[in-house]
């Protein structure tokens, strides 16, 4: 976790994301990069040429000054390089492109439900960033104050290769000596004994992991989102990890209509990690 990217739109909630990212990078050392995406709408349809270089330059310079002011106000960490970039474009296009090109390890971004960064960080845009960036994306609710992470709940459907996601979460947990509680909700399974299913899940999830502060729980139910939320509350989670290759699930998690019980929880950051799409059946 040596390079963290943090989108900023100069709202209070994006500052909260920056502070959270700064506390993480101070633990590991590395680079914290702030990025601002700006887009100027022409005054009249079909008048893109109206956008003179002076207007664009002024917007860029204003953003650069704002980002530098944010960096100047941060409590600096040892062995941390602070940088910023200003780009013209659409967030769901430019953020993933930049993250891949610069080999970013994690994106941290603030969210404030239906307000603030709604257009940038909610709905399909957040799903696109999480899906296309090629790295984990941590979404920090507006009311969350940074504190050391002690309990990580990792929700999984047990489909696909989650090696990279698990390795990243273990790396995060090791920074705090945190507990990782793996949790799966199965609507219906074909295993005769729950113990066999849990053994299979443990072998699949925790294979080759030397970190010992981990556990796995299984539950059955039809309402996956509600089940995840209930388990996270039960465990008093500091971070909820969602591992999926299904963009439709990400859209549910990050869209206003489906996230009243999860993303709108004002005290729970959500970390979206990637998996390789496949289905592995127990033998």
What is the chain-wise order of helices and strands? EHEHEHEHHEEHEHEHEHE
Range of strand content: 15-25%
What is the helix tally?
9
Which ranges are low-confidence, i.e. pLDDT below 50, for 5 or more consecutive residues? 113-123, 254-264, 279-283
Strand numbers in spatial order across the main sheet: 3-2-1-4-5-10-9-6-7-8
Number of strands: 10
Q: Outline the biggest β-sheet.
A: 10 strands, mixed
SS-based class: alpha/beta
Q: What is the alpha-carbon Rg in Å?
A: 20 Å
Distance between the termini: 35 Å
Morphology: elongated
Helix share of residues?
Answer: 25-40%
Regarding quaternary structure, what we see is: single chain
* Average pLDDT number: 78
Structure description:
With 283 residues, the chain is an alpha/beta fold. Helices cover 39% and strands 23% of the residues. It contains 9 helices and 10 strands. It has a 10-stranded mixed beta sheet with strand order 3-2-1-4-5-10-9-6-7-8, sandwiched between helices.
């Amino acid at each position: 976790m040596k390079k963290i990217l943090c989108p900023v739109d100069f709202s209070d909630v994006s500052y909260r994301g920056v502070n959270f990212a700064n506390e993480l990078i101070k633990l590991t050392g590395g680079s914290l990069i702030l990025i601002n995406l700006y887009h100027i709408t022409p005054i009249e349809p079909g008048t893109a040429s109206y956008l003179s270089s002076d207007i664009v330059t002024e917007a860029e310079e204003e953003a650069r000054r704002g980002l530098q002011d944010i960096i100047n106000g941060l409590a600096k960490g040892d062995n941390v390089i602070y940088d910023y970039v200003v780009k013209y474009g659409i967030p769901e296009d430019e953020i993933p492109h930049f993250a891949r090109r610069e080999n970013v390890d994690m994106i941290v971004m603030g969210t404030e439900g239906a307000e603030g960064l709604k257009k940038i960080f909610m709905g399909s845009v957040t799903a696109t960033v999480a899906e296309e960036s090629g790295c984990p994306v941590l979404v920090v609710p507006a009311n969350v104050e940074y504190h050391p992470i002690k309990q990580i709940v990792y929700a999984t459907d047990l489909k696909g290769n989650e090696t990279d996601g698990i390795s990243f979460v273990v790396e995060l947990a090791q920074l705090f000596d945190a507990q990782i509680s793996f949790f799966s909700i199965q609507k219906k399974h074909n295993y005769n004994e729950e113990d066999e299913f849990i053994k299979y899940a443990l072998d699949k999830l925790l294979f080759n992991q030397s970190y010992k502060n981990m556990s796995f729980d299984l539950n059955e139910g039809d309402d996956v989102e509600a089940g995840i939320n209930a388990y996270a509350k039960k465990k008093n989670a500091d971070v909820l990890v969602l591992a999926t290759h299904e963009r439709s699930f990400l859209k549910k998690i990050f869209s206003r209509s489906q996230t009243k019980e999860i993303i709108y929880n004002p005290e729970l950051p959500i970390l979206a990690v990637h998996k390789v799409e496949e289905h592995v059946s127990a033998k």
